[in-house]
Amino acid sequence: MGILEKISEIEKEIARTQKNKATEYHLGLLKAKLAKYRAQLLEPSKSASSKGEGFDVMKSGDARVALIGFPSVGKSIFLSLMTSTASEAASYEFTTLTCIPGVIEYKGANIQLLDLPGIIEGAAQGKGRGRQVIAVARTADVVIMMLDATKGEVQRSLLEKELESVGIRLNKHKPNIYFKPKKGGGISFNSTVTLTQCSEKLVQLILHEYKIFNAEVLFREDCSPDEFIDVIVGNRVYMPCLYVYNKIDQISMEEVDRLARKPNSVVISCGMKLNLDYLLEMLWEYLALTCIYTKKRGQRPDFTDAIILRKGASVEHVCHRIHRSLASQFKYALVWGTSTKYSPQRVGLTHTMEHEDVIQIVKK
């Protein structure tokens, strides 16, 4: 029996098992086995001598956004509208066969946008070059999931399932569980909160399935067995996802209103160029980027060339971005903007910068 057959057997077993107190250990074990087989499926086969044809693109710009969706939902038209890159678009499926990069210039930042080939059901098992598409998506900062508004919710649930099975967790944060394998001493289990979904016995069963018999486990939040398995495996990617419903010009206003009110969702029409500016605003919010402007002594700030950093960046990050030796020669900095109590404020290396702050660095 191959890995695919084993996975489908376990999925059927999970589907037909009732969820109650008596079966929770059995379900936990099945989920652990399922995660193990899926990890094996993603590992490249040792026997393959010829190298596979991947299509990862070199990372450029300040952030990377991957466009994922079924064939013929409007990904290539969206890329052509947003960037100066022309991606071939036609009314038949699989027009795009490789990864096409483009650059969105917005608020002084260069955002790399990747137009990936359409995903089909079973992509996680390698159907329709699905593995390469998903491998590129793992390297992105934000995923834009393009959906056809005329098809309802079917596409969204199928795509979420495909991405979930290869370890991409959308709009979720990393579980707050401390886990450390040890050389001896058995399994020490503790929790700082009341656990309703996991118990000590279930944790031990899952660890034994992974042949871990000595470890330290501390639950800092009430997590499910799936989240605990994610922590053990350790190769999960947690990333924000924006659900973009295209072709809204073909559905009723009531349906558009319903889709627009869903969490993490934006409705657009590439054909009629509707709501694209709001999508860019949302994308900027999800990327959590900040623009920092620099100023020389006795001169006006340079608003033409911004330093783009992640939200929560400190003065030290700004120094490293300008020059790697600047932080060691740093004396103090003067900052104007919303991160200070008064302008200018004299700050040290640990001061957190905010969007559109102006900084003047003084060396020793």
Automatic annotation (TrEMBL):
Residues 288-363 form the TGS domain. GO terms for molecular function: GTP binding; GTPase activity. Gene3D superfamilies: 3.10.20.30, 6.10.140.1070. SUPFAM superfamilies: P-loop containing nucleoside triphosphate hydrolases (SSF52540), TGS-like (SSF81271). Residues 63-288 form the OBG-type G domain. PROSITE patterns: G_OBG, GTP1_OBG, TGS. Coiled coil: none annotated. The keyword GTP-binding applies. It comes from the Eukaryota. Interacts with RWDD1; this interaction confers protection to polyubiquitination and proteolytic degradation. Interacts with JMJD7; this interaction is direct. Catalyzes the conversion of GTP to GDP through hydrolysis of the gamma-phosphate bond in GTP. NCBIfam families: small_GTP. This is Developmentally-regulated GTP-binding protein 2. It comes from Macaca fascicularis (Crab-eating macaque).
